[in-house]
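fold description:
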Amino acid sequence: MAIAFEQLITSDILKPARYLGNERLAIHKPWDKAVIRWVLTYPEVYEVGSSNLGHIILYNILNAQPRQLCDRAYLPGQDLADKLRTTNTPLFAVESKRELQEFDILGFSLSYELGATNILEMLDLAGIPLTWQERLQGNYPLIFAGGQTATSNPEPYADFFDFFALGDGEELLPEVGLVLEEGKQAGLSRENLLLDLAQIPGVYVPQFYAPAKDGSVKPLRSDVPQRILRRVATPIPAYSIGLVPYVETVHDRLTIEIRRGCTRGCRFCQPGMLTRPARDVEPEQVVEAIEKGMRATGYNEFSLLSLSCSDYLSLPAVGMEIKNRLRNENISLTLPSQRVDRFDENIANILGGTRQGGLTFAPEAGTQRMRDIVNKGLTNEELLRGVKTAWEQGWDKIKLYFMIGLPGETDTDVLGIEETVSWLQRECRGKGRRPLNFNLTISNFTPKPHTPFQWHSVSTSEFRRKQDLLRQAFRRSRGVKVNFTDVRISAMEDFIGRGDRSLGRVVRRAWELGAGMDSWYDNLSKAFTAWEDAIREADLDWKYRLVENGEWNLFAAQEESGGAGEAGEAGEQGELFIFSHSELRTQNSALSTQHGLNASLPLTALSTQHSALSTPLPWDHIDTGIDKKWLIEDLQRALEAAVVPDCSFEGCSHCGVCGTDFGHNIVIEPPIIPEFAGDFVPNITKTQRLRVWFGKQGDMALLSHLDVMRLFDRVVRRASLPVAYTNGFHPSPKIAVASALALGATSSGEIVDFELTESVEVDVFHQKLAQELPPDIPVYRVEQVDLKAPAANKLLEQVEYLITIAAASEVTPAQWQGWTEAIKIRDEILWEQTTKSGKTQIINLRSRLFELELISAKNNETESTAVLRYVGSCRQDGLLLRPEQILSMLEIVAGEFENTENVGILKTDCTKFHLWQIHRNQLILAV
């Protein structure tokens, strides 16, 4: 059954519109007609989860399945989490407002190594046991996880999930739904249902597997596969259109995927290894989805998404086609981090619009040698050409990503980051131009499963030393802002990300100790302490220290023989120095003092059979398509600084992916780039002004004023109404709301002015506007206003409210009436007000009150309430009478004021009375 939503989600909750579930394009399917009921539960706050493209795509796909529905849930803010626990209310799904326990299956996105604590928080708030073992008793939903981290190494999280969905979910999850539907109708037990699911390629059921003594993971029964296949699907852009939140999200735009997978072969990059082969989307599908999506959503910005957008050869043609088609609608295009070597004038021309966005490149390393070691495939000449093209096309600030701690890195390579940035600045200078500024993010290399560098680590002390080197190098640099990643988080991500099933108890204990939202700065110290304590309590601190000390060091010998800053002979000869887990356990005491360098064992040409390279890893049972032998060979190529070409555009690299199970690279020949039709020119012609009276009812009362303004902007786009724009660098639509309404207040008398570039019949405008607005924002009337007349916010004089007031003690109707009369007969009621600057001033509240009457009053067992109507001042110069100031006047006349030397001036908080409800009847304009 549904929770008591109105009592739970109130205006005192931060951004309550997060939890409404009635966004544009949200899907509400009948509960009783569904056989299988899903919840996609995103373990981050709403602003992150609701704008995640995978979340939107799977939500749309699952709701397209017959006899199935899909709802959503997000990690609640701390205020709502506290309220849920205080009121014993389980976490709920946003569309149906039903408890999560009522659903058949809950799917979590696990895309970050330390994100599992948020998942445990959500399960606990939902009243669902945390582990699959605990869920054997009782009728609980199936709990599964998908996402990059779940696919790469699910073992640290195996205790918490009934199954994992590995790889792409577009085809996999509907198959899961069909099996669940058949199993539910057949009355299968939980174990038999999971056994059926385990037969689906891409489904990993950890309770049917167990770690072996050698560290590998083996099946416990013969009727489940030895290795679990990663699923691959073809992207379908049409499913990307959906969910237009009322609140501003982290990606507040339409996002369309243009290419899935990357074959560049960067040796540190897990997404590039886990998403092969590369698959282009047909340009016509992309253009159609963008055009349709922009009309359906009303966004003023869209983004094209890929791991490497520049490798989508149709990008300039697609971008220019969309820019031409939507040139009159003030639309901007943004792209994620892109390949600097492919950045040219064609790509520069399609970016931005009237709002030129930021530009991000990822050179990754500061020297050519290091870029070759990681197989970046980027030369100094290509780096300069791309950056200089951006500078010549008008960008004055560029963001660059670098990494430190990469295998084979010397101090010379680290300092090469500063030298590269300084060189780029010197090369991009010109008369009449501002110097080129850079915003640098320097992250710590964290080894990831299924990559050639999965056998490497760097000690936290080395990371700190290298960060200090760069701080010193950049201390005199101008126009450069440098940001570093916290080394504590990097070490913890490494420890969990390459861990085994024994880490489940660490994850659980870390959550119990308060770890959560680990990627957010304000919780970082608390979270790190919780993780460290959890590791110590699990008696695994020795293992974590190995990670901190750099348990696997591929280039230890060259650091020793060559010293800091010089490449030693071992590195040049391709010798690998590496530790295995078993070797590290036996040499634990030595490593504590030697920091993992002197205990290393040389392995020439990666041929020694007893090396860690042949040791089974906790994730070897996950079949990503890439041969482990190829990863070892590519690691050898890294030692030799040998570059492997991109197999999408050159010869096959023989990684093992292409074939029946995973398909092949799909590279589409680019169409001809259309002629540029010209930039958006804001139409500032004012032909007509229409004044609209509208209401704000029901759930829409929980939208903030900025949310409403953003809503109107999108509504006029969806309705194709010819709104005029302001002039300048950032044109905005000429839409003016007369007065902001307090969060949580309802209204039947709001006013907004629209200025149009061409005349529209009043009835037509009314119909189009009302059709695109939510039902709880009704349009009452529309009138044409003289263009020379002042705007409504300039004419605003008075406001009429209905307010419901509650008193903690019993109050009779006669008392309420007496207090209202006492207020009316007084000429002066003084009140001490604190301004925004912190100054105090005395104002006469009574002079701002024009009408006051008691509408009704009643008593019940717990409190007394009264409904008052008042008309007060509401001028743009700040002369206002707010509803809470009526409470202040009631406090004074009721005798609840502080007896100071300024007798009659209220200084205490309004504790006797409180506002239950605020309703604005009308805004009164000057005649």
Summary: Confidence is low (pLDDT under 50) at residues 557-610, 896-911. The longest strand covers residues 913-925.
